[in-house]
Each structure stands twice: as C-alpha cells, then as structure tokens.
Amino acid sequence: MTKATINGQTVDVEIVEADGSSGASLTQAELALIAALDGYLRKQPAFAEAYPGAHLTRVDSNRILQDTDEGRFYLRYDHRGGDTEFWGHLAEESVLDFERGIAAVHIDRQRS
Q1: What is the pLDDT of residue 75?
Q2: Which of 25, 44, 53, 99 has the fewest CB atoms in 10 Å of its CB?
Q3: Domain ranges in the chain?
Q4: What mean pLDDT do residues 75-99 have?
C-alpha cells in the first residue's frame, strides 16, 4: 500500500494490476479521475448531509477493469458517523446512486 494526496487529503492507496499483482503508484490519469469522483461526491448535498465531515481515507485502483467499468475505483470515507464506501468509474454523464454506492463522473480526457 502507498499514499497519495488527492484534493488535499492524504489517502492510502492500493493498486491491483491487471495480472492481480500490486502496483506501485497511481497514474496521472487515475489521480485526475479519482479527484473528479471525490469532488463530485463532495458537491452533492445528499452526500454532505449523510456523511458530515467526510474525509477520503482510502482508494483502490482496480486495473483489471476499464475506467468505464463499475467498480473500477473504490473510495472509502471516514465521517462523524463512521465510514462509508463508494465505487467509482468514468461515464458519459455524472451519476450518484446512494443505494448501490456507485458514483460516476464525466471528464474530458483530452484535458487531464
């Protein structure tokens, strides 16, 4: 496990390579996508209300999956009431499904 800074938060990072081994560090594209997912979640009033004081503490990057596959990224947050988890991925449009713990964001890959 390594550490990374994402949106000003020091986060534990686990990377699972396509062959199942552990990876060394996040790519710039992964960092941009995770930062976008975290930013999107934080902007959602329902997220802020349900998870007051949420702090991103862990991210898993599952390189076995494509960026557009559900479950590509695991995000764990600690908050005043405990902890919560979301699975994030890249999508044509941003989506938040609280019941399933799914977050998806659209980012212009040419800009990241």
Answers
A1: 97
A2: 99
A3: 2-105
A4: 94
